[in-house]
Amino acid sequence: MKRLRSIAAASAIVAATAGAALAQAPGVSDKEIRLGTIQDMSGPIVQLSKQTIYGIQMALEDANAAGGVNGRQIKLSIEDHGYDPKKSVLAAQKLIEQTGVLGIVGLMGSPTSVAAMPVLEEAKVFSLFPLSAHAAVSEPQPMRWAFAPKYDAMMRMATKEMIKTKGHKVICSLYQDDDFGLEVYRGATQGLKDLNMSLKETTTYKRGATDFSSQVAKLKSAGCELVVLGAILREPALIMAEAKKIGWTVDFVSSSASHTINLPKLGGKDVEGLYIAAIVKTPYADDKDPAMKAWAERFIARFKTDPDVYAAYGYIGAELFIRAAKAAGRDLTTASLGKALEGLKGSIEVFASAYEFGPKKHLGSNMAWIVQIKDGRWVEVTKPAEIVD
Questions:
Q1: I need a surface site. Which of 137, 199, 267, 319 has the fewest CB within 10 A?
Q2: Longest alpha-carbon distance in the chain
Q3: Do residues 312 and 280 make contact, with C-beta atoms less than 8 angstroms apart?
Q4: Considering the chain, what is the average pLDDT of its residues?
Q5: Cβ neighbours of residue 281 under 8 Å, at least 6 residues apart?
Q6: What is the pLDDT of residue 314?
Q7: 229/273 Cα distance (integer angstroms)
């Protein structure tokens, strides 16, 4: 009898230990993995967030339909931040404390991602591939993982490429007055420094601004030939419309944040000629690539709308998580998922997205290229290439 009690006690200890191992990863139960995402569902970039959510959902639904991840189904909870950093913190706290999530995937925006980082870090909840190329989101800290090249690196490349191909002499910058805009500005200044040049004029705007008449007039007066934009969706359209209104012909180049099929739809002829630094292929349903065409057709059948680049971002982020979680094995803990993320290497071919992570490399890709709006469509100007960080 005494021996049986000892065996029972030992078994209880083993069971408790196993339970503790699983408990190390919040949001993980025997049959389920809970993820969260924080998006703009009520602010200025709702269109981008809706597409991001669709992309995440598509990847997760594909995985769940195929049996889930090592026997677990993935459940997604969505919170709104309205593109407000303070609301992003509150949304993160809600997902951590009330929902209980393993990670936040595809968090929308740089200022909102940067604001939520400390909260996620403290709770040991993963920040998984946010929709941001801010330097802070890919710092080699245990909970931070990103796939987009940094804004400063991509805009350093884009500024130099524009000067090289177009021969611009007078360079200026107009950017959103926050963490995102500052990264774009820093990239432009570094690119110019590489060429022994400097910005002639700079000006900023607040998030949500709709009137750019004073900023555009200031840049025109400075004789700018190229304007580096730290802007997203609505703003490039309004800025370029204002330039055309006052008869100012100038080149504009923006970051990957502006790479959306909604921009040429929104801006029409006003945004013709806009250049941006791209990091994924534009997912057109009539693409000549059979894999892209098939993916886009599946997306349209599921969501009854054309896919956007932001759907690709969401899909890539969710797919990277799925691959890491599968590699982590059935014993899915914070430690095992972190180790699996470190070992991720491969490609999501449909979007020309190669990636490689490591213990000190939490940014999976450093590839970018230039695309331009021509006849209402994004057209490749340069080929994908590794960019200087």
A1: 199
A2: 95
A3: yes
A4: 93
A5: 287, 289, 292, 312, 350, 351, 352
A6: 98
A7: 14
